[in-house]
Specification:
Radius of gyration: 27 Å
Helix content: under 10%
Strand content: over 45%
Low-confidence stretches: 1-30, 106-121
Order of helices and strands: HEEEEEEEEEEEEEEEEEHEEEEEEEEE
Oligomer: single chain
Structural class: mainly beta
């Protein structure tokens, strides 16, 4: 008996389908599997620095001084198979000698506070995670900076090969790098957990996308009453930033970013500031965000939008790096009405940041001029209703780095982060920022260069100097700012001039992959850094004093 036509067709289809699956699942016999490869890059730093009067963010009290030394080990392990790779970046920061009431590290890894006052919390030097005391037997000191996988998401030989354009994706803990901006510290520069993708649409057109997870809510974390929940809510952000090169020498990087927070959030993206009409007196901590549990109330939310452009242009010896961002949105907080009642109030956000760098090179001399301006609030403004200061998503304290050593990061990159929050938050307290910088670098030989920097600095709005200065009460992390003294505080502004910093230094690359850096800086304090305090119940003004620092570093890169 002959099989029916339907049976033959079914048999044929089954055979073809089986053959296709076999071909897909069987690797080509002639294809060569790439050999796995592991590489290690990184650096060793040995740093020592001394200074006076800038560690505690109060220049009117000048008995804060130190001379310390530390070491940093920063290895990056890269594991590669073909075009797919994984990166593990580690970091160890150890101070020479015991600098706190314990050695730091686990289980008591309390990082110190500005000015070495980490001894009060049993910690160590700011941003170090341990102390090399006598016999140097410390443990539990490794920090994980990066831990991500990079792979081809679309394009040929990718996860989604049917999409014709090439996209390289990353998942895990990763650096922002240039996902959001070119210029260091203007919006997003540190690290984050999440996913990112860079798509090449044409040789001169790319798009960057990043989804950032700041805080996540686990199952059941939102079951209790709002003020008793263990969850800090869902805090996230995303960045969309094309990269366009219209012609050689000009790169344009537009930006749109959205940030959402529930209850309190990371101090890197929202600074804590004193505000008399806010519950608890400080905008940012849990009391101002619903009170009750340490996380506050996750129904008090923030929605922040940022748009703008970062660019770089090179033509012969000339260069121009302009940045302009505008920010808007809303922030919920718990505020006091004129009758003393507590209610939720929505603050309106509107802020600008403009940052320009112009450069000119002639022979061995490089001249650079930098100007920046960020908007701010007046002393009397109620921050529960109006926010006019610009807030980066995360710049890890790097704004203006390399252009100062007291008001920004210098050779000793652990100092300068906490100088009134200007490295981390760009503006001074709520008052914004206006600054000029002139930097001249002369390359004596390819191995030896010297430089000098002058940076006069002001605020956009006048600072009320009938306030004190230091760590904001109730703040977390490194938040420094102005604090309330009495009823004369927060009435009117007095001065915009923060001071002028003069910095000089040299870099000597005396051997392959080895460099020696030496740097000194002096801050001539301006009247906007003056403070007030109560002495025997009397409102007393104090003038700011100058500050200085000197640092040396030996770096081995590998």
């Amino acid at each position: 008996m002959r099989p029916c036509r339907k049976s033959r067709v079914a048999f044929l289809l089954t055979t073809v389908f089986t053959s296709v699956i076999f071909v897909i699942l069987t690797p080509p016999a002639l294809a060569q599997v790439p050999a796995p490869k592991v590489t290690i890059t990184g650096l060793f730093d040995q740093v020592t620095s001394a200074g006076k009067n800038f560690y505690d963010a109060n220049l009117a009290r000048d008995n804060d001084r130190e001379w310390y030394a530390r070491t940093r080990f920063r290895p990056d392990f890269t594991f590669e198979v073909g075009r797919t790779k994984a990166v593990l970046g580690l970091q160890i920061d150890l101070a020479y000698g015991q600098t706190g009431s314990n050695d730091g590290g686990f289980p008591g890894n309390n990082t110190g506070s500005p000015g070495g006052i980490g001894t009060a919390t049993g910690g160590t030097k700011l941003f170090t995670n341990g102390n090399l005391d006598l016999n140097t037997d410390v443990g539990g000191m490794i920090k994980i900076e990066w831990i991500y996988t990079e792979f081809d998401l679309t394009g040929k030989d990718s996860l989604l090969p049917f999409v014709p354009v090439q996209t390289v994706a990353r998942a895990g803990g990763q650096p922002f790098a240039s996902l959001a901006n070119y210029k260091v510290g203007v919006y997003a520069f540190g690290e984050f957990a999440g996913v990112s993708a860079v798509t090449t649409l044409a040789p001169n057109v790319k798009t960057s996308f990043a989804y950032i997870i700041l805080e996540d809510q686990l199952a059941g974390g939102n079951r209790a009453a709002a003020t008793a929940r263990t969850s800090r809510g869902e805090d996230y952000a995303f960045v969309v930033s094309p990269e366009i090169t219209p012609f050689t020498g000009l790169d344009l990087k537009p930006l749109y970013s959205y940030f959402h927070a529930e209850g309190i959030t990371s101090f890197w993206t929202r600074r804590n500031l004193v505000n008399r009409r806010t519950v608890g007196g400080v905008l940012g901590p849990a009391a101002s965000m619903g009170g009750g549990a340490p996380a506050g109330d996750s129904t008090d939310q923030e929605d922040r939008h940022t748009i703008g452009l970062d660019a770089r242009w090179r033509m012969g010896p000339f260069g121009l790096d302009p940045t302009i961002y505008y920010q808007w949105g809303t922030l919920d907080s718990q505020a006091l009405t004129s009758s003393g009642a507590v209610k939720r109030v929505e603050a309106d956000m509107s802020a600008w940041l403009v940052d320009l760098i112009a450069s000119f090179r002639t022979g061995s001399l490089l001249l650079e001029l930098r100007a920046n301006y960020s908007t701010g609030n007046k002393a009397r403004d109620n921050l529960s209703k109006s926010i006019r200061y610009f807030q980066p998503l995360d710049n890890r304290g790097t704004y203006y780095a390399g252009w100062a050593a007291i008001m920004a990061l210098g050779v000793d990159y652990l100092n300068g982060v906490a100088m009134d929050g200007m490295g981390s938050n760009i503006g001074y307290d709520r008052y914004g920022r206006a600054q000029l910088g002139l930097r001249a670098t002369y390359t004596i030989t390819p191995a030896l260069s010297v430089y000098g920097i002058v940076s006069p600095t002001w605020t956009a709005e006048k600072v009320d100097t009938d306030t004190n200065s230091g760590l904001v009460p109730g703040a977390v992390g490194l938040t420094a700012g102005r604090t309330t003294v009495d009823d004369k505080s927060w009435v009117e502004g007095d001065s915009r001039y923060l001071g002028t910093e003069v910095t000089a230094g040299l870099t000597w690359r005396w051997a392959p992959n080895a460099a020696f850096d030496l740097q000194g800086a002096w801050l001539s304090a301006g009247s906007a850094l003056n403070t007030a305090e109560l002495l025997n119940g009397v409102h007393t003004r104090r003038e700011a004093n100058d500050a200085y620092t000197a640092a040396a570093r030996v770096r081995l890169s590998f």
